[in-house]
Design brief:
The complex is a heterodimer of chains A (about 130) and B (about 140). With about 130 residues, chain A is mainly α. Chain A contains three helices and two strands, in the order αβαβα. Chain B has one domain. In chain B, strands 1-2 form a two-stranded antiparallel ribbon. Chain B has a two-stranded antiparallel sheet with strand order 3-4. A two-stranded antiparallel ribbon of chain B has the order 5-6. Classes of the chains: A mainly alpha (about 130), B alpha+beta (about 140). Chains A and B meet through helix 3 of A and helix 1 and helix 3 of B.
């Protein structure tokens, strides 16, 4: 349960960072020589989830190897394979607007999911007497 | 298949149509450009350009097997090889010995039709995008 809330809050962070990145790209849609940024999170989360190789820890001070319980943080990077205009600007406005919409829906979905988790916790704390 | 695939596909079509619009704008803007390139000591008029669009299908075996849907992208911009139009205008500085000026092979009427169809295609994709978005938002209301 707590793990789920942790993943979703991390995803919310990623969504927030992505919103900033997209806003920045759109704001710089006409800036000469601007290279657009993007946020990677899903790939990192998938890598974390798919990690099969986990080192057994017999002591709390041992270094964790392939710890599946750690939640990755979103990373801001430069976009690859960008088509630059004559001014050296690489922003694809339509793609950015698409991602803006996607991110918006994703954020709404995540808040819905996290609310449901908290409602479950609330029910279990207060009971249904 | 990601839930956002419909939005990604519409977005790729928006990008492709915007580039097509850029190409049409360039053709209309240069409809009378007699000096586009300087080749072998001679000015060559502007050649009409066309955008080649292709489906962004990844040609992997798995994607064919799953009948994966894909967006669209502009693969390249090619030049129209139809001959230039010769116009008799001896006073023009670019006229040859016979008094003819080679003008671009751009047909403005054709370009206007392309402009309209590209603009309509863009609108259609925006509509499809909005429909996909409202479906996803409605899906979030299931069970509420």
């Amino acid at each position: 349960m707590n793990q789920l809330i942790g993943i979703m809050s991390s995803a919310l962070d990623a969504s927030m960072l992505r919103q900033k990145s997209i806003s920045n790209n759109i704001a710089n849609a006409d800036t000469p020589g601007y290279k657009p940024t993007k946020v990677t999170f899903e790939e990192l989360l998938q890598q974390e989830v798919q990690t099969q190789f986990v080192g057994k820890r017999t002591n709390g001070k041992h270094i964790a190897i392939g710890d599946a319980s750690s939640i990755p943080a979103a990373k801001l990077e430069q976009q690859q394979n960008v088509v630059f205009s004559t001014s050296g600007n690489g922003v694809d406005l339509d793609a950015e607007m698409t991602q803006l919409s996607q991110n918006n829906i994703w954020y709404q979905g995540l808040t819905y999911g996290i609310n449901e988790e908290f409602n479950l916790l609330k029910t279990s704390i207060s009971g249904r007497g | 298949m990601s839930i956002f695939q419909s939005l990604t596909i519409s977005g790729s079509a928006l990008t492709a149509n915007r580039l097509k619009l850029d190409v049409v704008s360039s053709n209309i803007a240069n409809a009378n450009t007699t000096r586009s390139e300087y080749i072998n000591g001679e000015w060559v008029p502007y050649r009409r350009k066309m955008a080649v669009v292709a489906s962004s299908q990844t040609s992997t075996f798995a994607s064919h097997l799953q009948n994966e849907l894909s967006g669209v992208h502009v693969t390249k911009i090619v030049e129209d090889t139809t001959p230039f139009q010769a116009v008799y205008d001896p006073s023009n500085p670019d006229s040859n010995e016979q008094g003819y000026v080679m003008t671009p092979n751009v047909d403005v009427t054709k370009e206007m039709v392309d402009l309209m169809s590209t603009s309509r295609a863009y609108e259609a994709n925006v509509t499809a995008f909005n429909a996909g978005k409202s479906m996803l938002l409605k899906a979030l209301e299931i069970g509420r």
